[in-house]
Amino acid sequence: MTRRISILGATGSVGTSTLDLVERSSDRFEVVALTAATNVRGLAEAAKRTHAKLAVISDEARLPELEAALTGCGCRAATGRDAMMEAAAGEAEWVMAAIVGCAGLEPVMAAVRAGRTLALANKEALVTAGPLMTDAARQAGTTILPVDSEHNAIFQCLAGNSSSDVAKLILTASGGPFRTRSAAEMHSATPEQAIAHPNWSMGAKISVDSATMMNKGLELIEAQHLFGLPAERIDILVHPQSVVHSLVEFVDGSVIAQLGSPDMRIPIAHALAWPERMKTPAERLDLARIGGLEFEEPDMERFPALRLAREALAAGGSAPIILNAANEVAVGAFLERRVSFGDIARVVERALQTIQTPSPTSIAEVIDIDRQVREKTREIMSLLAA
Ligand code: NAD
Ligand code: MG
Q1: Contact 116, 89 (CB under 8 A)
Q2: Whole-angstrom Cα distance, residue 181 to residue 358?
Q3: Quick one: pLDDT at residue 176?
Q4: DSSP line for 71-138
Q5: pLDDT along the chain (386 residues), means of 10
Q6: pTM for this structure?
Q7: How far is CA 160 from the centre of its chain?
Q8: Considering only CA atoms, which of 173, 174, 177, 215 is closest in space to residue 196?
Q9: Gap from CA of 151 to ligand 2 centroid (Å)
Q10: Calpha distance 56→74 (Å, rounded)
C-alpha cells in the first residue's frame, strides 16, 4: 500500500527533509502535490523527481517560469488560493504542513476539515488558531501528528498510556546559540550569530526563534493545544545536547523520554510511517561517545520571550495571535537588520500591552487579527526607531 502525500512548503528545511525520506522509500509513497512560496527551481526539480501531479507556487508572477520548468513532465503548475487548497485537501491522504508562519494557517485548516492525516510542523498555525483547529480536527476525525521534535517525542512517550495518568510534560530546549551569552552580548547579536544554531539546521525564522527562545514559548502553546494539559503542567528544561527530545512524567513518578540524534528526519519519518515505522539515514545515537547529558532551568531574565509566551497563553483569546504576529514581523525586521536582536522581545511585549482585539470565533477572524497586528507592529517598530 502506498500513501498518497502532499508537502506544503516543500522547498524549506522540513520540506526537503521530508522529500529526502520519501525519495529513499519511493515504494511507500506517492507524491500528489508540492508547494513553495518563491523557489521555482527547487519546486520544479522536486516535482520532476517525485512525479508529483500538482506544483503550486505562491508568488503568482513566477507561474510562467514554473510552467516552463514543468513542460512535458505531466505535472500541473498552478498558483493562487484554490490551488493551495487543492494541494492541502485534494487527493492526498497525508499532508505535511511545513510552511513557516501564520501564512500556512488556511491550507492547514483545509486539510484538517477534509479529514486528511496532518503532519504538523507549522507551529504558528496551531499557536494562532489552537482551539478552532483542535475543534475542527475532532469534528472531522482528523489525526494531527506532531512533527516538531519535542511534540513528536511527547506523542511517542504517550503511546499506550491514558492521558489521565499524565502528571506533566517536560519540553526540552537546546537554549540556542546564546545560552551562555550575557544580555549585553545578546542585545547586539547579528542575524548570522542568531542563525548559527549549535545542534539543528533549520529555516531562518525558527533559528532566530530558537535564539530568543520564542520558539520554546510557541512550543509551550503548541503543546497545550496538542495534548490538552494546563500550562502549569508543562515545564521547560534546557538541555544543550538536544538528545532527549522531551519527556512525560506520569502520576506514579515514572518519566518516559524519547531520545535520538538531532535530525528532523527522525520525527518526520515517525509521522510519515505512522502508525508503522520506517528506516532513516539519521546518525545513530552513541551515548558513550556523547558521554554526558546536561539539564538546567531556563533563564527567564535573559530570555523574556518565554515569559511573554506564558503570559499570552494564560491571557488566551487573541493574545497568542498578537504574540505570534508581532514576533513574525520583528524577526523579519531583525533579519533585514532594521531592529536589534534585543528589540524582538521588546516589540512583542509592546504589541501585547497595546493591542486589543476580541477573541476570534472563526479562521477568517484569526487571519484578520493577524493582519491588523502586523500593521500595528510596524508602527511600534517605527516609534522604537524614532
Ligand atoms: P523554511 O523557511 O526553511 O521553509 C518554509 C517553507 O514554506 C518553504 O518551502 C517556503 O517556500 C514556504 N513558505 C514560506 N512562506 C510562505 C508563504 N507566505 N506562503 C506559502 N509558502 C510559504 O522553514 P522550516 O525551517 O522548514 O520551518 C517550517 C515550519 O516547521 C515552521 O513553522 C517551523 O517552526 C517548523 N519547524 C521547523 C523545524 C526545522 O528543523 N526546520 C523544526 C520544528 C518545526
Ligand atoms: Mg521544536
Answers
A1: yes
A2: 38
A3: 96
A4: TTTT-EEE-SHHHHHHHHHSS-SEEEE---SGGGHHHHHHHHHTT-EEEE--HHHHHHHHHHHHHHHH
A5: 96 98 98 98 98 98 98 97 98 98 98 98 98 98 98 97 96 97 95 92 96 98 97 98 98 98 98 98 97 98 98 98 98 97 98 97 98 98 87
A6: 0.98
A7: 25
A8: 177
A9: 7
A10: 14
Residues 6 or more apart whose Cβ sits within 8 Å of residue 136: 109, 112, 113, 142
Please give the single-letter amino acid code of residue 311.
Answer: E
Among the listed residues 279, 281, 262, the one whose alpha carbon sits nearest the alpha carbon of residue 270: 279
Quote the longest CA-to-CA distance of the chain: 61
Q: Where are the alpha helices (DSSP H) in 228-362?
A: 265-273, 287-290, 304-315, 319-335, 341-354
Centre of ligand 1 to C-alpha 214, Å, is 16
CA distances from 255 to 116, 163, 234 (A): 32, 14, 14
Neighbours of ion ligand 2 (CB under 5 A): 148-150
Q: Which residue do the cell numbers 540524534 mark?
A: 261
Q: Is 153 in the pocket of ligand 1 (CB under 6 A)?
A: no
DSSP bridge partners of 6: 33, 95
